Amino acid sequence: MKRWQQVAQIGGFEFRRFFKWKQELFSLVLMAALFGISAGWGVLKSSLEETHTVAVVAPFELPNIPQIQWQPVTDLEAARTALANETYSGVLEISADAEQGYGAQLWASNRASWQERVQQVVQAVLQQRKLSGLPLSPEQVQLVNTPVAVTVTISRDDASQDVEASTAIPLLILVSIMVGVFGSFGLMMTAITQEKQQRVTEQLLTLITPSEWMDGKILGITLHCLKSMLTVVIIMVLVTVLMSVIKGGVTNLPPISPSVVTISVLFALIGLVMINAMMAGFAATIDDPNHSGRTAVMLIPALFVGAGFGIMDSPQGILAQVLSWFPLTSFAVMPVRVADGGVAWWEVAGSLAVLVLATYLIRSAAVRVFRMGITMYGKEPSWRMMGRALIGRKLS
Amino acid sequence: MQVDVIGVCKDYATVRAVDEVSLSARGGEILALLGPNGAGKSSLVRMMVGLTQPDSGSISYQTGDVASATLATTQFGYLPEDRGLYLDRTVQDNLRYIAKLRGMARDDAQKSIANWLQRFDLSERASEPMRQLSKGNQQKVQLIATLLHSPQLVILDEPFSGLDPVNQEFVLSVLEELRSAGKTVILSAHQMALVERMADQLVLMNRGRVIAQGSLAEVRATLQPQQSIRVQFADTIDEAQLAELEGDMNTVVAHPNNTFELTCGGQIDLAQLLTRLQSLAPVVQFSRQHYGLHELYLQAVQA
């Protein structure tokens, strides 16, 4: 059988090994629920929050605030006594002040988030009261109340979307890559350490070479990670649309450029292959994942994706430019830069070429470590042995 | 297929695991590797299937007139000592995967799997995950994985371990069937009684070296150069009389009831010995002691 056929067989097996319909459906529902809850958290929180009754001693009425019920009272001391008995959540006294116009004091039994909202509303109301006490015309009052507008004009052609929209696409890309990297960590770790513990290795190594085996694993698990990434993207988009519809607004998805999608997928795919190669080589050196101190090392690739999040506020800065060429971070950083716009084609091509070359070299080194580690039971190779295997030196 | 191992050595760090081992196994023959743990059997087997390479010496495989230094995956089946399959996958999935990696066509694989599962009485458990099977049944699935592509050379490291006596007998019958079909079977085992019954060739190893090899009779002759004879006389005799036969006897050990155990060196004419013993007193029992492979194995290893 040809090498690519063996790799395809192994890849298919590895993919099916972790693809279970019931689990997939369950995780889809769970993910949709989680995104839904996080997207609609504000609405959910306010709808579930209890109503607080606040006794008010004030010379005028206060406007209504959600979850706050004003209870006008005249006897402040009686109200404070009732506060101690938990009849009220708080007692608010608003009094006229000779110098400032008004003064306000809020008593409460415990510190709670509703007090901040009360403070903000009372401040705003008293500010308006103060303004209305000045000899100003309604037009002047309105003028004072209108904040000064600062208009930001972006000169680049492709930067027509608003700020929220411009961060949405890179965020979506990075979150999906992070999902892929974590998936890669979990699956590769499980795949290889289980095989070592279940003693599958010796049987298989008489049928396939270590490099075929590792490449097959990279193929199958990369496909699985891509599936997870795609699922996350679809769920995120669907939930965003759904939440917009529920809120009664128009769905306002940022425009998605095909070139951004293509470049992002390409970088993410090659980056995942590179990460999976690193994981495969390293996982083969772990004897027991529950007791090995090396397990944490496999989380390092998550830091590479973290670099993408780190440059989101300045995607065209010097640091972002450097990281978008560095192969361990470029797969996460370059898509963010491309989504931000204004990256020259030669930069994209050059970074991609460096990434491909690095992936090839890392995969070659990983095969050597994998070959050494996969048949080692009951002990882990030393760092020195791993180092020698990495550079292709014979183990002494 | 004929397997020729010539002067093979293998070192691991400072330990010589296999030391100048030579053997030859032919088609239609069962060769059993015997020896205590650490004797070098598994190291030798791993080299035969290409998992490791000899440091010196050679291993070659001859099919008809074609000799080769390597084996194609379709030519051999290997049951490793450290064995296992994917416990979370079903029996069928595991076997299909192995069949695919061996390059078997889908239909052929399916037929072979169904056939073997039926023979091993596992058809009804084909869609169960491996972890739900008993150790013995898992072992049977392993054996099916080794045999499902009908290999010319079958190499089995401890094939009887984990099996109950009924299944040991069944595996034995399968091995005999393979021999009848002209396959070459090489195995390592600790079940001496089973090995004694089926093996055409024995290779007894200790500390990496071959200490005896050949047919059972040849191994016996190598390991038991002395014959042990038990004789019981009708009347009491003096041990000194037996000592007169000193030229033929190495040792004489007295037992109750006028019974003696005589150890004779080299080949001895038993009829002549009996005549001489009868001249001392009437003999009521005269028998040659046969040690089983188990005793020979223990004696040789302990020596």
Automatic annotation (TrEMBL), chain A:
Identify the residues that the record assigns to the ABC-2 type transporter transmembrane domain, covering every copy. 26-359
Q: Where in the cell is it found?
A: Cell membrane
Query: Which keywords appear in this protein's UniProt record, sorted alphabetically?
Result: Cell membrane, Membrane, Transmembrane, Transmembrane helix
Predominantly, its location class is membrane
Picking any one GO molecular function of the record gives:
ABC-type transporter activity
Keyword match Cell inner membrane? no
Q: Single GO cellular component annotation?
A: plasma membrane
Q: Coiled-coil segments, which residues?
A: none
Regions crossing the membrane: 25-44, 168-189, 229-248, 260-284, 296-323, 343-362
Q: A Pfam family this protein belongs to? A: ABC2_membrane_3
Is the Transmembrane helix keyword given for this protein? yes
Give the bilayer topology.
Multi-pass membrane protein
The name of this protein is ABC transporter permease
Q: Which organism is it from?
A: Pseudidiomarina aquimaris
TrEMBL record, chain B:
Q: Specify the ABC transporter domain's residue ranges.
A: 3-232
Name the PROSITE patterns on file: ABC_TRANSPORTER_1, ABC_TRANSPORTER_2
Keyword terms, alphabetized = ATP-binding, Nodulation, Nucleotide-binding, Transport
Lyase in keyword set: no
Among Gene3D superfamilies, the record links this protein to:
P-loop containing nucleotide triphosphate hydrolases
List, in alphabetical order, the Gene Ontology terms for molecular function in this entry.
ATP binding; ATP hydrolysis activity
Keyword ATP-binding assigned to the entry: answer is yes
InterPro entries in the record: AAA+_ATPase (IPR003593), ABC_transporter-like_ATP-bd (IPR003439), ABC_transporter-like_CS (IPR017871), ABC_transporter_ATP-binding (IPR050763), P-loop_NTPase (IPR027417)
Give the matching SMART domains.
AAA
Q: Which Pfam families match?
A: ABC_tran
Q: Which PANTHER family match?
A: ABC TRANSPORTER ATP-BINDING PROTEIN, ABC TRANSPORTER ATP-BINDING PROTEIN NATA
State the similarity comment.
Belongs to the ABC transporter superfamily.
Q: What is this protein called?
A: Na+ ABC transporter ATP-binding protein
- The species is Pseudidiomarina aquimaris
